[in-house]
Design a protein that fits this description.
elongated, alpha+beta, 4 strands
Length: 116
């Protein structure tokens, strides 16, 4: 397994993390994930021949990493990131911590009761 690549970029005020890794000879796949706000907004998996040498694999990793970085810079993942944010975050300004935690638990387990 070869060491991968990690790149942090900001596009239009939104932060993205692009991570590329080799899954190893037992699972000959190069995987690149694009994160925004902790959610995966894009991914690409590319299988390779087990007969490839380290330099060939590194070349594939570099090309795939650069390809998804270019797509992110071109704004290709903005819509997915916004959709992810909409379902994940909401304002808790002015709410007490106990009520925020209780609401979170209710979403995890709808049968949770308020026993205060």
């Amino acid at each position: 397994m070869l060491q991968g690549f990690n790149t942090e970029i900001e596009i239009g005020g939104r932060h993205f993390h692009v991570q590329t890794e080799d899954k190893g000879r037992q699972n000959p796949v190069i995987e690149t994930l694009v994160y925004s706000g902790g959610a995966i907004v894009a991914s690409r998996k590319t299988p390779y021949q087990t007969s490839f040498g380290d330099e060939e694999i590194l070349g594939l990793m570099r090309r795939q990493h650069r390809s998804l970085l270019s797509a992110a810079r071109a704004g290709q993942y903005q819509q997915q990131a916004q959709a992810s944010d909409a379902g994940r975050y909401r304002s808790v300004r002015g709410a007490e911590l106990d009520s925020v935690i209780l609401e979170f638990l209710k979403r995890l387990r709808p049968d949770t009761e308020d026993r205060t």
